[in-house]
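Q: Sequence in, structure out?
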Amino acid sequence: MNLRAAIAPLPAALERNRNFFLSLLNESTTLSHLAQAHAQIIVGGYKNDISTVTKLTHKLCDLKAIGYARDLFLSVSRPDLFLFNVVIKGYSTNHSPRSSISLFTHLRKNTHLWPDNFTYFFAISASAGFRDEKVGTLLHAQAIVDGFGLDLFIGSALVDLYLKFSKVELARKLFDEMPERDTVLWNTMISGLVKNCCFEDSVLVFKDMVADAEVRLDSTTLAAVLPAAGELQQLRVGMGIQSLATKLGLHSHVHILTGLISFYSKCGDTETASLLFDQIDRPDLVSYNAMISGYTCNNKTDSSLRLFKELLASGERANSSTIVGLIPVFFPFGHLDLTLCIHCFCVKIGVVSNPAISTALTTVYSRLNEIELARQVFDESIEKSLASWNAMISGYAQNGLTDAAILLFQNMQTFKVQPNPVTVTSILSACAQLGALSLGKWVHDLVKREGFHLNIYVMTALIDMYAKCGSIVEAQRIFDSMQEKNVVTWNSMICGYGLHGHGKEALDLFTEMLQSGVSPSGVTFLSALYACSHAGLVTEGDRIFHSMVHDHGFEPLAEHYACMVDIFGRAGKLEEALEFIERMPVEPGPAIWGALLGACMIHKDTRLAHLASKRLFELDPENVGYYVLLSNIYSVDKNYPQAASIRQVVRCRSLAKTPGCTLIEVGGVPHVFTSGDQSHPQTKEIYAKLEDLMEKMREAGFQAETVSALHDVEDEEKELMVKVHSEKLAIAFGLISTEPGSEIRIIKNLRVCPDCHTATKFISKITGRDIVVRDANRFHHFKDGICSCGDYW
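A: Exactly. Output:
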């Protein structure tokens, strides 16, 4: 009895000592404090106490002493699951995903312990640190096997993981399958959709969440969905969120007010944004950043600079978001000096290599056509984010430097940087401009592999790429497969039909679009008018133009007027075209008079050509194309002295004509030819093939059309000059380099000349080959001696 009394207090004493050490660890705020506490723990005989060691390990991980934490963990002979979880999480939060997953694997294979939902949560969070989602997908499969497939805690981590890697379809599927959803899961889904630019989906998920009476909305929910409403410029939705915030008592939360400032700014209402900013008693840096950015994105640079100076005067230190908000990304024109000043300021304070800042500077310089400065900023950025690569690739594509865009994309692949939908849309745009079909198909395969096929922007870019690379059937197949289409999707398909001369299909699709409830844009009408122009649909074009103005309230731009002049002019209604110009409520510019001059060339009207060219030489005297057109018109009319005088003006003014060149892609390798080109390694074989073709063509009745050749040389020389045009050389090369019967595709940078157009019809008949030609205006599909344009181009 006395012995029991003597030893009874011992557990209580042990518990008091343990609590003392746990309290000591809680109060430790530095690594030095923890090291001292660890020494006392060892002296006190608690170095093997699992609770104390776990607490110490946790604190070490929090202070980023992951090496110390690992050594402590390894010193424990039989760690429990809680300690394993702490270290797995510690590796994850300290950017050591491989170590985290390695420890998880060790737990499963080499211990008697079994992972719980926390173990999986921490391991899945760690897998987000890899370059793709494969490790996370394996963990997902293991979680299902272990019975955690529908666990809410794990489900939230997996949804977050899939959205991080832009696997929107997988995330949405898992989200929809969850039997219960808490606020965290809803918030994860909404914010992830926003990060993946799925703004409409984000708003729809938010509306579903509001409709679910069992789920409580919090300030994070509202802050997460506001950017989507702002990007969509859905004022009613944003105001509804603001009312909901007031109803829930969250309106005064600083991050809600900050979100509302950004929302109203994106909707162009900086006055309301400014009023909300003034409601914040003590604006923090994030609020300042939102308002500065709001002013900048609405082209109110004076106000953004004033607020920036106010921020600095308050003693607050600007961060990268402040600088990014100050850079005039949305309205760069006229602000090169400001951008250079901001650039210098960034260099001075040592933040120019920050990925967000360098990306914004790259974007602005690209938009200002200062592509060398953009590349300099990109190259000097030590840490290149995915957004940095996207900005530079997009900059090249937007400036017509498609070769550079594609080369940089390939360089990005060698650095194993995972592309996202923004990357894909930029590189598809470059492929479309260059006509690089093989690369475009490779990117399409990448889209399928990465699960981007549900992204509306990616799919729209694919439609545009296939249409501009000559595969209108594939473009139509993708369009038909899309469940969701926005106005840009419809525009791309309508424009694609127009490029290929399918006027009826373009107008049928235009009608279908209007009936589907999608509101047309100015580009929609331009695409429809363009289709009418290249298909000779005069009545339909006139009707669409009238509807655009009177039914839909659009004010025509110069491009719309030029299209109408082109519609009348191509159809031979030159007087009606002139009357249309004279009735225009605005002063006609070069595009309008240029359309009329082009029609005069087709229909050989020297009188109106003289009138149009006179206006063009006044409005755009440096454009050599107009001089060449007029000279050719005089040559056709056999007015050689007048043609000579025009060419003399060109020589005296040192105006240079854009040299014609043609690209053909064989085996994924592009080959470019110029007129009379003899630089190709297979020049001898190409010219031999061309000579063979010319002989067979002459036997079939071909006669050279030499209007585009110089008038002051002999007819034989003229024929020789047009015989070696770049498109003929490219076709000849295609014939000797591809399988018999296969399709040949070429791209000409200028409008195809009449002689080459006629020659290609003969070649398609003689060789039995389908030949697709993309020139500066449209596509020509040659088959059995007939062109899809019906000689109307």
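The longest strand covers residues 661-666.
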